[in-house]
Design a protein that fits this description.
The strands form two sheets. This protein has a five-stranded mixed sheet, with no helix packed on it. The longest helix is centred in the middle third of the chain and has 19 residues. The chain has two domains: 149 residues, Regulatory protein AraC (Jelly Rolls), CATH 2.60.120.280; 107 residues, Orthogonal Bundle (Arc Repressor Mutant, subunit A). Helix 5 packs across helix 7. By secondary structure, it is of the alpha+beta class. Strand 5 and strand 6 form a beta hairpin. 28% of the residues are buried.
Amino acid sequence: MKKIPVRNIRRGHRRDFDIQDIGEKMAGKDMVQELHRHDFFYVLALEKGAGEHEIDFTPYPVENHTIFFLRPGQVHQLRVKAGSTGWMMQFTSGFYRNVQLLRRIGAINTYPDREGKALRVLAGIFREYQQQEEQYREVIQSSLHIFLVTLLRLQHQPAKDSPNIYTEERLEALLELLETHIHTHKRASQYAAMLHLSLYQLNAVTREALGKTASELIHEQIVLEAKRQLLATTAQISQIAAQLGYEDVSYFIRFFKKQTGYTPEAFRNKKG
């Protein structure tokens, strides 16, 4: 069964940060990346660009002064035409630990940067990474924070800290667990136990942060992963059900239809 490839950070001494010049990487040729996902945060920033970027099966045009931000686990494919300029940056949550800011940034996949404010910060990060002078990692981490705050401002979002840091941290931990364990854990009580919370406490966290119960978030994650498999692979419905931890394929079909209004097969044919 064909699976969605997962890419890791390969360059860099500690394998937790990397930034590359797009023009140098493309070397005068088109850049084509087939469907895949990452286990890190990914930034594609274009000073000048043309092409198409499809993120979780939603197409976006690659244009001048556009920045794309992807969370770990998102599925995407990319076609950038020769002559494009800018940077590709990738980093782990271990390199940059402000989970509240990362969650807010990650809620949006594309940011316009017509005045080039965020792009100028990235140019400085690239120079720092190339030169690697004393304490360059600390400088990059500080500059990365400025870059992410700038993205928030581009979307007219307030960049102030969350009034409840504990809630934000617990939510981020839950979302990471969902990405990792959704194939084997389907009950909110299981995630509450992994987070050392009661089910009541977990639901209080998700309701305060997103206005949803933990079970609703679990269902959303299952559906998202099912859609990824339906549209990105040729796997049979029974294989996708099994991969998602459903022994009874008919139960999986009923669950998917209840959440989306389509059977898995109808959804695949509609989007195909």
